[in-house]
């Protein structure tokens, strides 16, 4: 599978998650719907996807380093950048969550 297709799939997944989050935000829901994913589940899935991306990048890099046939330098660099961008995005989300928590904790009761 080419890296372009994987990138497109990742973008489609991110857009789908965004649409799900917007739908959940706009709809008034019962506190505990059966089968509904919670925020912690969504965050956990995002963390797992970033981890998978980093592991795939590491494996591709190791395969290139040992000279495995069929591994191209451009694929290694693209995988590395994809892992880097996804980790930076996750870090920014974490920073925003921490800032929101701090803002809420500083509100007068």
TrEMBL record:
It holds the Pfam family FliE. GO terms for cellular component: bacterial-type flagellum basal body. One of its GO terms (biological process) is bacterial-type flagellum-dependent cell motility. InterPro entries: FliE. The keyword Ribosomal protein does not apply. Keywords: Bacterial flagellum, Cell projection, Cilium, Flagellum. One of its GO terms (molecular function) is structural molecule activity. It is found in: Bacterial flagellum basal body. It comes from the Bacteria. Belongs to the FliE family. This is Flagellar hook-basal body complex protein FliE. It comes from Pseudomonas weihenstephanensis. The lineage of its organism: Bacteria, Pseudomonadati, Pseudomonadota, Gammaproteobacteria, Pseudomonadales.
